[in-house]
Amino acid sequence: MTRSPIMSTDRSEGGRPARGSARKAEIVALASRMFRQHGYHGVGMRALADAAGMQAASLYHHFRNKEELLLETIYVVDRDMIVEQMPLLDGPGTHGERLARLVRAHVTHLGANRDAWWVAGRELRALSPERLEAVQAFRRDYQRRIARHLAEGVEAGEFDCPDPRLSSLAILDLINGPNEWFDPSGRLTIAELADRYADMVVRQLTPVRPEGRDPNPR
């Protein structure tokens, strides 16, 4: 049986996804910014090397080609975030509390990595079919894990959710949405937005109980 990409991702000693050297992470952040500003096809490896203050040969030491660098920028969202945040659904608390923590972490990550999120949303089709499938596999696992959590919440009597799969897709549409419009100088900070989204998601899933009825009868 093929292992889930989430389970087979390389990890560092601390259990977090392996990200390579600090210098490599800096290059990925720079590439994310330049891809967002100029588009993936509008940026060459030499321009990236110049912006990073290194020789092109040094850049190729970290990344074999531009597509590999694009994949790493997308993996900031579609691998690293997912691997780091999936365990939140297995943590302490009710199903609603755990889902709220995941929603907050998801939206907060979006706010802290806006360039990478833009690239992941716009430049995915520039990947080769094999690499595109690797990214899509992470996304499918994430959606399926959320759907399973919703189904478990229904079984526990915490959620009213007739179609967990459809609801998981709707939740992802909602919490991915700020990638299109969030403005750090706007009315809400990303932390405030994350709190409101978490509250909104859990409220929509919470069963409406008759007034005066004890939700936890003895």
UniProtKB/TrEMBL annotation:
> Gene3D superfamilies given for it?
Tetracycline Repressor, domain 2
List UniProt keywords, sorted A-Z. Answer: DNA-binding
Gene Ontology molecular function terms on file: DNA-binding transcription factor activity; transcription cis-regulatory region binding
- Its domain of life reads Bacteria
Signal peptide (residue range):
none
Q: InterPro entries recorded for this chain? A: Homeodomain-like_sf (IPR009057), HTH-type_TetR-like_transc_reg (IPR050109), HTH_TetR (IPR001647), KstR2_TetR_C (IPR041490), Tet_transcr_reg_TetR-rel_C_sf (IPR036271)
Keyword DNA-binding set for record = yes
Record region (Disordered): 1-22
Record domain HTH tetR-type: where: 21-81
Pfam family, any one: TetR_C_24
Per the database entry, where does the chain bind DNA?
44-63
- Name the PANTHER family on file: HTH-TYPE TRANSCRIPTIONAL REGULATOR RUTR, HTH-TYPE TRANSCRIPTIONAL REPRESSOR BDCR
Q: What is this protein called?
A: Transcriptional regulator, TetR family
Look up and give the organism this protein is from: Pseudonocardia ammonioxydans
> What lineage, starting at the top, does this entry show?
Bacteria, Bacillati, Actinomycetota, Actinomycetes, Pseudonocardiales
